[in-house]
Design brief:
380 residues; 14 helices
Amino acid sequence: MGDYTVSRDTYDLAVGKLVPKSGDVTGEAEQEFQRTGRLDPLVDPAGFDLIRFSRPRFKLQEDEFYRLTVGTPLPVEITLDTTVSMKDNVNKAMKHLPEIYGLCYGILPEGYDLQVLFGIFQDIRDEVVLCRGQFEMESEKAVKQLTLMVPDRNGYDIPEDPHYALLAAACLSRLYINLIGLKGYHVVVTDAEGRPKLEYDQIVRIFGESVFDKIVENGHEVNCQDLPTTKEIVQDLLKIAHAFVIQVGYDHKATQFWDGIYGENRVVKIPGTEYLSQVIAAIIGLTEGTLNLQEVKRFLTDNGIRNEDAEKIFHSLVNIPLRAQADLPNFGRRPQKGDLFRNKTDIWPIDQKEVAELESSETNSDIGGDDSEEGPGWHF
């Protein structure tokens, strides 16, 4: 899997190769869906065996140890509303993709490998209720998956159905970072309220007949006869991720609904999605302890947000759980670039005292497989 990350240059190359010169970035995927009725497996919630992985990247040394190439994987899942007024969110995400990676890397402490998964949600009466990609860290793969989304752009709007995306994030994710006692990030971006309950038939429709077996296989329990509420799913999600709603606009009913599901300290309101990159980065910075409240407004304005909008966003950020990641016991122990592992399946690297006694080769060869033909194929 190498040590590539998203950069402006590699993003521009990927866009030139994969994105249509005119029209919506998802135009070809939408046409293909209308022709076949099927999503591409890379963004189909039922694709690639349902479970989404965030794993370390290694290079095999001549001494047969595995060297961590970038750092501890940090999964960030961003689920976008694409109904009606939110219909252009995939186009906007594509436009701001380098900012999302760049601002987050800029605010993170050293030693992380940022891995972003994009998804979209719509209404259960739409042809496509949910698209869910893979955790990506390279420009071409991140760009490709955005082009494969199928936004309906209509929908019945209110209420909407992000709770199926929440179920996927909580029960169908397998994240290395949880094995070391830390958490990833999950963000729902919407301008409307959702629904308080899931429906069995919709879960099977979206994820396939094997979904409940996969949830159990992944270490979770969901009672088909007594499905969890949306609030209960979020409580499960909070065990593995720092989870937030970014509410676009200031609709009172939407705020009231999400406050009841997440708690007031996890609902951040913004004027428009053009500020999404800056706000996600600010949330991560405050959670990781690299940004404090005295610095937030300056961070927002320095990164292109108007003063009056930065003031509103600041008042929405002040109550989020500060340093929630930084204060976890293993925060200072997270593996760093260059650490050696005996096996790819190990949770922790070799102790530094032992490393000092090893004579590691400087000649590396990539491992982990090439995903270009079969899609995500990493194995612990």
